[in-house]
Amino acid sequence: LGTNPHFLVTSEGEMVEAPRHFQKAEEKLAKAQRELSRKKKGSNRRKKARLKVAKLHRKIANQRKDFHHKVARKLVNRYGTIVHEDLNVQALSRSHIAKGIHDAGWAQFLAILAYKAAAHRASGSVLAGRRVIKVDPKYTSQDCPVCGHREKKPLWVRAYTCPQCGALLHRDVAAAQNILARAWTGPSGVAIPCPRSPGL
């Protein structure tokens, strides 16, 4: 919890670092908001300060969206089937991990991913047939992908060690492999948004 720098992890072990756009700009944004609060209401200086805050928010949103498009394109180009946990993003946004959820922008990312996969299906291109599948997220990080043994561990434990068969994997890689098993339809790769990103 708070130590994993990854936005998503694949079943093959590839880890995409979370860019944390909001977190990186937070200090600058807080300063701009303080300056805005000090300006007299109705003044030109307040108007300029408000525009500055809006510009910073726009920049963060654009950076996040660009990142989402690039990652989604990479996944759609690489995999025939992309599987992710059916996360209740709205509920997570009201939890103690809300700040990290907002910064990651999972709802937007998953929408972009689904759109790109559907566009390929409709295009009739060599990449046609890309599918995005949601699976139940329960126990994906607790089950051993090798033998199926279930071992409850606190979220801050990042290594999955199975006491039953001795398997040792990164916890998120183990979860990705479990998710792949739940939606297995052929020799495809799998990628999951990782709900254990920085600040979560």
Poorly predicted runs of 5 or more residues: 185-189, 195-200
Summarize the helix and strand pattern as letters.
EEHHEHHHEEEHE
Number of strand segments: 7
Average pLDDT level: 82
Morphology call: elongated
- Helix fraction, binned, reads 40-55%
Q: What is the strand content? A: 5-15%
Number of separate domains: 1
Compute the gyration radius: what is it?
20 Å
Structural class estimated from helices and strands = alpha+beta
Physical arrangement of strands within the biggest beta sheet: 2-1-7
Q: So how many helices?
A: 6
Quote the distance from N terminus to C terminus: 6 Å
Largest sheet entry: 3 strands, antiparallel
Structure description:
Helix 1 runs antiparallel to helix 2. The C terminus is likely disordered. The chain is of the alpha+beta class. The protein is built from 6 helices and 7 strands, in the order E-E-H-H-E-H-H-H-E-E-E-H-E. The protein has one domain. The strands form 3 sheets. The chain has a 3-stranded antiparallel β-sheet. The protein has a two-stranded parallel ribbon with strand order 3-4. A two-stranded antiparallel sheet has the order 5-6. 47% of the residues lie in helices and 14% in strands. It holds the Pfam family Cas12f1-like_TNB.
A few lines on this structure:
This protein is an alpha+beta fold and 200 residues long.
List the helices and strands and how they pair.
Blueprint: E1 6-10, E2 15-17, H1 21-38, H2 44-78, E3 81-85, H3 89-92, H4 98-104, H5 106-123, E4 131-135, E5 159-161, E6 168-170, H6 171-182, E7 191-193
Parallel strand pairs: 3-4
Antiparallel strand pairs: 1-2, 1-7, 5-6
